[in-house]
Amino acid sequence: MTKKNRLLLRGRIFGAEKPSDVVLEDGRVAGIVPAGQSPADFGSPHAIIGPTLFDMQINGAGGFDLQGGQVTVDDVYAVSEVLARYGVSRWIPTLVTGLQEEMEHGCRVIAEAARGARMRRVIPGIHLEGPHISPLDGPRGAHPKEHVRLPSLREFQRLQKASENRVICVTLAPELPGALRFIKAVSAQGVLVSLGHHAATAAQIRAAVDVGVRLSTHLGNGSSPMMHRQLNPLWPQLAEDRMHAAFIADLHHVPGDALKTFVRAKGHRRSILTSDATSLMALPPGIYTFAGAKVELRSDGKICLCGTDLLAGSGVPLLQGVVNAWRCGAMSLPEAFASATTIPARLFGVPAPPNCTRVGRPANLVLFEVDARTGRVQQPTVFLDGTLLES
């Protein structure tokens, strides 16, 4: 903190037309007034002040991977620290299709990391993205075919036991044999069931929703690259008012025009923004080995198999996705922030990140500027529970 533990932050709160000065004393919000002429410690009249974020799908970050049998508690802590520097204060670790023993190991490690009171708030649960997904090329995405398997309540109970009952979301393909029985049973236990990496018909999607499905995982991805223009899995999920939909708003997985159309169809109150970040998120551009293949992380965060434009994961932070959704016209800035904070928290039944500017409360906010030409978010300034994080 500066002199007398007082800081002045300047920016447009949630993208308001006029900037404000947020005064912090000892890490707490002491007041909010119209922006003055005195120098600010952080921000400018062009900066944006928003809440910290909730990312429902994180596979890794900063070179730390949550997948496989070697992940450690320290890896989970490291991912959390990387995400915090990019404004994410709540996140759901996501384990993808793999050997049952490795997925159980991941569940045990994440459960151990989340035992403390603070980390329990930061990590409200675990998302299992697989292994009960389509074995078909295209819908399966990058998930290893040899580990895809049919829905099994017995296996789910083993994973849930390993996680100390922290699994709160399961992504599966509803067309698989036994899927409806699995959905009904798992939903009855309070676990959110989501559709993803599938090739279901409209009738199969409706049947899954009838027995408990409430979400689409990264809609617009995890599907066949060649589909019938009308009879495909996208439209029934967009049209189903009982379902929310999550979108990867990096503008690589879902281009801006598609995102704008999807959100208009689903409605912003049922739209969730996620990064679906991999271990390459927050690393410098370059050539890396990822999931056993050589990939290129480009300067815009796009990750491709070397020598191609084929996507190989996501490397764009959620805060950039919020700005992308706003700048492409899919949402207003307050709507985009809601889709990355209160809307997913409400769906999962967990606390949302705290109000960023409530007077008297510890500061929980992210302050950043956007390059007007490129739309890129500059490195944000982040306060968590009144503490300024080092960038």
Overall description:
The chain is of the alpha/beta class and 391 residues long. The protein has 2 domains: 3-50 and 354-388, Urease, subunit C, domain 1; 53-348, Metal-dependent hydrolases (TIM Barrel, Alpha-Beta Barrel), CATH 3.20.20. The chain has helices at 73-85, 100-113, 117-122, 153-162, 179-188, 202-210, 234-239, 256-266, 318-327, 333-339, 342-348; strands at 6-13, 20-25, 28-34, 42-50, 53-58, 60-61, 64-65, 88-96, 126-129, 167-172, 192-195, 215-216, 244-248, 271-274, 286-290, 293-297, 302-305, 311-314, 365-368, 381-384, 387-388. Helix 1 packs across helix 2 and helix 9 packs antiparallel against helix 10. The mean pLDDT is 94.
Task: Please describe the topology of this protein.
Elements (H helix, E strand, L loop, with lengths): L5 E8 L6 E6 L2 E7 L7 E9 L2 E6 L1 E2 L2 E2 L7 H13 L2 E9 L3 H14 L3 H6 L3 E4 L23 H10 L4 E6 L6 H10 L3 E4 L6 H9 L4 E2 L17 H6 L4 E5 L7 H11 L4 E4 L11 E5 L2 E5 L4 E4 L5 E4 L3 H10 L5 H7 L2 H7 L16 E4 L12 E4 L2 E2 L3
Parallel strand pairs: 1-4, 5-8, 8-9, 9-10, 10-11, 11-12, 12-13, 13-14
Antiparallel strand pairs: 1-2, 2-3, 4-19, 6-7, 15-16, 16-17, 17-18, 19-20, 20-21
Helix pairs in contact: 1-2, 2-4, 9-10
CATH fold annotation of the largest domain? TIM Barrel
| CATH class term of the largest domain | Alpha Beta
Percent in helix? 25-40%
Overall body shape: globular
Number of contiguous helices? 11
For the secondary structure, the number of strands is 21
Label the CATH architecture of the largest domain: Alpha-Beta Barrel
Kindly report the spatial arrangement of strands forming the biggest sheet: 5-8-9-10-11-12-13-14
What is the total domain count? Answer: 2
The CATH superfamily of the largest domain is: Metal-dependent hydrolases
Q: Tell me the distance between the termini.
A: 15 Å
Tell me the radius of gyration.
21 Å
